[in-house]
Amino acid sequence: MRLAGIILVSALLTADAIGAEIPPAERRSGTSFMTPDTKAMQDDDTANPGMLWVLDGEKLWARKIGAADKACTDCHNDARTSMKGIAAHYPAFDKTLGRPVDLQGRINLCRVNQQRATPLAYESRELLALTAFVAQQSRGVAIETGSDPQLAPFIANGRELFMQRQGQLNLGCTNCHDDNWDKRLAGSAITQAHPTGYPLYRLEWQSLGSLQRRLRACMSGIRAQAYDFGAPELVELELYLMSRAKGVPLEAPAIRP
Amino acid sequence: MSGPILAGVLLALPGFAAADELRRYAVVGDAIPEPLTARGDATRGRALVVERTSTCILCHNGPFPEQKFQGDLAPNLAGSGSRWSEGQLRLRLVDASSLNDATIMPSYYRVDHLMRVGPAWRGKPILSAEQIEDIVAYLVTLRE
Q1: Residue A164 and residue A157: Cα distance in Å, rounded?
Q2: Could you tell me if A64 lies within 8 Å of chain B, comparing CB atoms?
Q3: In B, which residues are within 8 Å of A170 by CB distance?
Q4: pLDDT tens digits, residue range B97-134?
Q5: How many CB atoms lie within 10 A of CB A219?
Q6: Is A110 marked active-site?
Q7: ipTM of this predicted complex?
Q8: What is the pTM of this model?
Q9: Which residue in the list A72, A75, A173, A218 is annotated as catalytic?
Q10: Local confidence band at A16 (pLDDT 50, 70, 90 cut-offs)
Q11: Which CATH number fits domain A1-6+32-257: 3.40.50.2020, 3.20.20.70, 1.10.760.10, 1.20.1050.10?
C-alpha cells in the first residue's frame, strides 16, 4: 500500500519534473544574484555577521545542560568531524516520529530526548546559533537531501505546496522561482530559491534567520496565511526545496539582501 | 493558454462571500465597458500605480522615471492606452485570469477561488472599485 503510493508519487514527480524543475547544470545559488559587495561580505568570515552566531553555537555545543547534564560534545565529540556533511542531508526522515525533521527540529529532539532539557523556541538566538554552527560544518558540501525513499511522499507534498497558487495575489512559489528567476520583482532579484545558506544573515532583517522565516516571508508577500513555525507543511516545503537544489553546495551562514 | 473570448454579454456574479461587497459588472467580449463606479481620476490613478501596496510596479515597469525600483516580470505599461480600450483595461485589472488562466497577473477585483488568503486580506479585493476606476483612467492616458 505504502510502496504503491511511493511508486505512484515518483512516477508523478518524474512526469511533472520535465516542465518545471531547474536542470542540475542550471542550478544557481542565491549568492550568484548578489552584488559584489554583498558577496565579499559573505566570503569574508571577519565581515560576515553570521559568524557571530556560529561562535555562539560553538560555545553552546560544549555546554552541559538539562536533567541529563550533557553537552552535544558528550555524544558527538568534535563537530568539525562528526557534523561534516550532515546539513546537506536535511530534512531527514525520523523513524520514531515517522516523518521528516529539519536541522532545527533535530537539534530540539536531541535537547529533549538526550539532554532532557526544554526545546528551544524557533528564531531564538540559541537555536539559530546551534543550527548555524552545525550547518557551517557542511560548507562547500553538495546538497544530497531526498535520497531516502521514505521521504518520497513528503517531498511530493512539499512540491504540491510549491506549485499551488495561494494568497490574495494568487501566486505559487513556482510562478516566481521556476518561471521567473532571471527577472526582478521591483528592486529584488528573484532567485531560484535554493536553500543553500540557512540560517543566514539577511540585511533587511538585521539578523540571522531560518529558512522557515524566509518561507513565511514569501507567503506573506503573496498575502497568504503563513504556516506556523514548525508546521509539517514548512518542513515539507524545506524538504522539497532541498531535493530540488540537489548538487548545489551549502554555504551557511550566507548573507542575503 | 488564452481563454476563449466570451461572446455576448455575461453577467459576472461575484461569489457568495462577496455578494454584498463587490459590485456586479457585465463582461462584453474581452472588456467591461461600463465603469464599476463613478469615473476615475487619472492623477490619483498614477499615484496608485506607483504605490508599492498596489503591487503593480513589483512586476511592471512604465513611464515612472522617479521610481527607482520597477519590476520586469510583465509588459511595460507605456502605451497601454493605445493597445487596449478602456473596457479592455478594466477587465484586465478586475480579473486578468478570466482571459488567461495561466497569467501571473493577480485579479484585483475578485475574492473567490483563492486559497489560504491571510486574515488581513480575506474576503477583500486587492483594490476597491474606486481605485480600479482611477487606475483605468490613468492607463487610458498612456499613449505612445
Answers
A1: 11
A2: no
A3: 97, 106-107, 114
A4: 999 999 999 999 999 999 999 999 999 999 999 999 99
A5: 21
A6: no
A7: 0.90
A8: 0.91
A9: A218
A10: very low
A11: 1.10.760.10
